[in-house]
Amino acid sequence: MRSEGETLVRVAPLAVGDVDRLCALAAEIWHRHYPAIISAAQIEYMLRQRYDPGTVREELQRKDLWWDQLLVDGEITGFASYFLTGNAGEMKLDKLYVHHDHQRKGYGGMLLDRALGIARAYGCDTLTLAVNKNNRNAIAAYRKYGFHIAESVAKDIGSGFVMDDYVMTKSI
Ligand SMILES: CC(C)(COP(=O)(O)OP(=O)(O)OC[C@H]1O[C@@H](n2cnc3c(N)ncnc32)[C@H](O)[C@@H]1OP(=O)(O)O)[C@@H](O)C(=O)NCCC(=O)NCCS
Q: With contact defined as beta carbons under 8 Å apart, do 152 and 139 qualify?
């Protein structure tokens, strides 16, 4: 928890009742952030794939996957999700997002810290992620957090769409 003047900032597990608000926030961030990076059609496709409320609610049942929310004065302002990949000692940071009006205040770092804590508690020594090669601000943030580029991958995600990513990893 962090208190900045009157502002209370904390990271908490996402609950089933928060899922609709999370999906609305994801759509807002994606529509603002990704038009410069991927096509409008790919944004809609990936939002449906990843942020369908039913899918998120199913993921909340899993024991190897975590969803956290960043609350600023009680309002959902960012989120993260991460899961055990099945490779020994490896957690994947699958999502890390902070609303534009609240970026560069260290909140992404707060979400990451919680993921790191869970990863360590599960005996992981590596946190991995995939980030679009043109997502420069996010790559800068990940470098600042201690990740480095491990490889370059192009992943077919169906319907003619491809994710052109760097895989970045951090020893923990
Ligand atoms: C990437 C992201 C999660 C980082 O969260 P954040 O709360 O803004 O980041 P922090 O305050 O913890 O760290 C900020 C660092 O990120 C980088 N960064 C973030 N936004 C940036 C921007 N608009 N321009 C340049 N660098 C930026 C910088 O390295 C910055 O460090 P600095 O402020 O000391 O220069 C957030 O900016 C975000 O949601 N971006 C849009 C969505 C996205 O791309 N998510 C990652 C998908 S893989």
A: no
